[in-house]
Design a protein that fits this description.
Blueprint lengths: L2 H7 L1 E4 L5 H14 L11 H12 L4 E6 L2 E10 L9 E8 L8 H16 L3 E8 L10 H8 L3 E12 L2 E11 L16 H4 L1
Parallel strand pairs: 4-5
Antiparallel strand pairs: 1-2, 2-3, 3-4, 5-7, 6-7
């Protein structure tokens, strides 16, 4: 599959609970084979479906489809639960490992950012596993991807994640996508129509 063909034919839509099995198939190798996620055990299908449902109560959960097959997904969660953090979210993007470097992640992020702006979200935060030196489980690619999308590095925590008998750092990166006003209206809940605008 060529990069140009994939980019042209990607459709972004809101995730459905019935997508859980396909999404879990994308996520599972990240758990088992990488330190991109610090999760140790692949969640059950039921738990994964519940995660999707919980996110969609308030936030966007988007999938990228190519020829009817899901090739990636993106969603957000609260940056922190306290009310004063309502304008900030933590982003997550996962791409089928056979479709990396083909523009899927960028297209998902663009759609996600559009939805968040429609909601009134102002800060996109990314929590990223970060190796001291690239290895077979984790590289700095994710941080470089976010930097390319306009994120800036805001902090690094040393050796706070332990997986595959190795210690990994974690970084926070941030992208400001709105204007911070003195009087700020609370963000709206996500609605599927926000994706269409």
């Amino acid at each position: 599959m060529s990069t140009s063909t994939l980019k042209k034919d990607i459709v972004i839509r809101v995730a459905a609970l019935d997508d859980a099995e396909e999404l879990l198939e994308i996520y599972a190798p990240y758990v088992r084979e990488t330190a991109i996620t610090f999760e140790y055990e692949v969640p059950s299908l039921e738990e994964f479906r519940e995660r999707i449902a919980h996110t969609l109560e308030k936030y966007p959960y988007l999938v990228a489809e190519h020829d009817g097959k899901i090739v990636g997904y993106a969603y957000v969660s609260p940056f922190k639960e306290r009310a004063a953090y309502a304008w900030a979210v933590e982003t997550s993007i996962y791409v089928d490992q056979n479709c990396k470097r083909m523009g899927v992640g960028k297209k998902l992020h663009s759609a996600l950012e559009h939805c968040l702006k429609e909601m009134g979200i102002l800060n996109m935060e990314a929590c990223i596993g970060y190796p001291q030196e690239d290895d077979e489980y984790l590289t700095k690619n994710s941080a470089q991807f976010h930097e390319h999308l306009g994120y800036r590095m805001v902090g690094e925590f040393k050796k706070c994640g332990y997986k595959f008998q190795r210690w990994y750092n974690m970084v926070w990166m941030e992208k400001i996508i709105g204007i911070h006003e003195e009087i700020q209206t609370f963000p709206k809940k996500f609605d599927a129509d926000m994706l269409k605008d």
